[in-house]
Write a structure and sequence with these properties.
heterodimer; A: mainly beta; seven-stranded mixed beta sheet; four-stranded antiparallel beta sheet; 0% helix; 57% strand; B: mainly beta; globular
């Protein structure tokens, strides 16, 4: 499969659950991103990884924990979430130094009950 | 961090008319200025971009203009069509992965 893929596409979880979102890019990029998209803040940058090192963390609550084991994979580990965390979580990748264009995955629609 | 403002937040135009969306940013180090289009239920996708050494770029019915002195850039869509209906985001890039998306403009093209 080409481009950026995300699994699962939909997720419903309780506030006490632990779950993980997965993102995989097949573009050979060296930077990956997590965004939260909700009605209140359309595209909110959460985390950036460049060359597998985190370079940005925009004051995201600790109940969100990213992991980037290699340049092709990115995870977002979720625990003890709140109903206001319900949103679309988008993953993106880019190749720094050759365009900066971001390629987005289809997103995971998360509902916290 | 970068302050990015996008105007208008909603825009309705008749099919065939032009649409203009403006993005204002604060970081003078920004050097890459893209516009993304997000159709309902789909992922954002780049439609046009411009770099800081260029004032204008055109691709068929869409164009982007940049005013680095005033720190704003605009998306221009001519001869609008119903398929142009979407949310448009600007995302000025300040280097070292410092990208901030605007709040979005919902464009509705009325047939």
């Amino acid at each position: 499969e080409t481009g950026v893929t995300q699994t699962p596409r939909h997720l419903v979880m309780g506030m006490t659950n632990k779950k993980s979102l997965k993102c995989e890019q097949h573009l050979g990029h060296n930077a990956m991103y997590w965004y939260k998209q909700s009605a209140k803040k359309p595209l909110e940058l959460m985390f950036v990884y460049s060359l597998e090192e985190r370079v940005e963390n925009n004051s995201v609550p600790s109940r969100f924990s990213p992991e980037c084991p290699n340049s092709s994979h990115l995870f977002l580990h979720l625990h003890t979430l709140q109903p206001e965390d319900s949103a679309l979580y988008l993953c993106a990748s880019s190749q720094e130094r050759s365009g900066y264009e971001q390629y987005f995955g289809p997103g995971t629609r998360l509902t916290v009950t | 961090g970068e302050n990015v403002e996008q105007h208008p937040s909603t825009l309705s135009v008749q099919e065939g008319d032009s649409a203009v969306i403006k993005c204002t940013y604060s970081d003078s180090a920004s050097n890459y200025f893209p516009w993304y289009k997000q159709e309902l239920g789909k992922r954002p996708q780049l439609i046009i971009d411009i770099r800081s050494n260029v004032g204008e770029k055109k691709d068929q019915r869409i164009a982007v203009t940049l005013n680095k002195t005033a720190k704003h850039f605009s998306l221009h869509i001519t001869e609008t069509q119903p398929e142009d209906s979407a949310v448009y985001f600007c995302a000025p890039y300040g280097g070292y992965q410092k990208v901030t998306f605007g709040t979005g403009t919902k464009l509705q093209v009325i047939p």
